[in-house]
């Protein structure tokens, strides 16, 4: 199956499911340099697979690019495809990390899913590929643990 053309610079329909979403990559012009790219998704939404109620999370995606960069418009469309997708917090977080890693083949990637409480219990989910490249500056993700009114 041939890869579709980039979604950048043209109107595209919103994908209905994460499986329908296309993640685009572009060549890394600094592929000989180790550096970190961070995507912050403060308003991620998906659905509880049991109740159908909406779930909300703050996602932090950090990666050290290899030969490819993740194109941000395609990431926005991919993230939006979860709005009507029913899956547990753990599945959504790890699925996103694995899909991005598969598409762009980074030197290293981590995703932090900071989920807002469901049933009074917040759930934080973390996944990464391998080890951080030696000497790479990786700042803290900066998302405080959920404290409610504390």
TrEMBL record:
Pathway: tRNA modification; tRNA-queuosine biosynthesis. It is found in: Cytoplasm. GO terms for cellular component: cytoplasm. Keywords: Cytoplasm, NADP, Oxidoreductase, Queuosine biosynthesis. Its EC number is 1.7.1.13. It comes from the Bacteria. GO terms for biological process: tRNA queuosine(34) biosynthetic process. It catalyses: 7-aminomethyl-7-carbaguanine + 2 NADP(+) = 7-cyano-7-carbaguanine + 2 NADPH + 3 H(+). Pfam families: QueF. Substrate binds at residues 70-72, 89-90. Its main location: cytoplasm. PANTHER family: NADPH-DEPENDENT 7-CYANO-7-DEAZAGUANINE REDUCTASE. Catalyzes the NADPH-dependent reduction of 7-cyano-7-deazaguanine (preQ0) to 7-aminomethyl-7-deazaguanine (preQ1). Belongs to the GTP cyclohydrolase I family. QueF type 1 subfamily. This is NADPH-dependent 7-cyano-7-deazaguanine reductase. The lineage of its organism: Bacteria, Pseudomonadati, Pseudomonadota, Alphaproteobacteria, Hyphomicrobiales.
């Amino acid at each position: 199956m041939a890869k579709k053309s980039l979604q950048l610079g043209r109107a595209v329909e919103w994908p209905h499911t994460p499986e329908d979403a296309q993640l685009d990559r572009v060549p890394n012009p600094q592929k000989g340099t180790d550096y970190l790219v961070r995507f912050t998704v403060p308003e991620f939404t998906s659905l509880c697979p049991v109740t159908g109620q909406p779930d909300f999370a703050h996602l932090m995606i950090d990666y050290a690019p290899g030969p490819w960069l993740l194109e941000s418009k395609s990431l926005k469309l991919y993230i939006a495809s979860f709005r009507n997708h029913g899956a547990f917090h753990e599945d959504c977080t790890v699925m996103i990390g694995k899909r991005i890693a598969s598409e762009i083949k980074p030197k290293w990637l981590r995703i932090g899913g900071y989920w807002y409480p469901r049933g009074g219990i917040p759930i934080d989910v973390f996944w990464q590929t391998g080890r951080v490249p030696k000497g790479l500056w990786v700042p803290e993700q900066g998302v405080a643990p959920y404290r409610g009114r504390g």
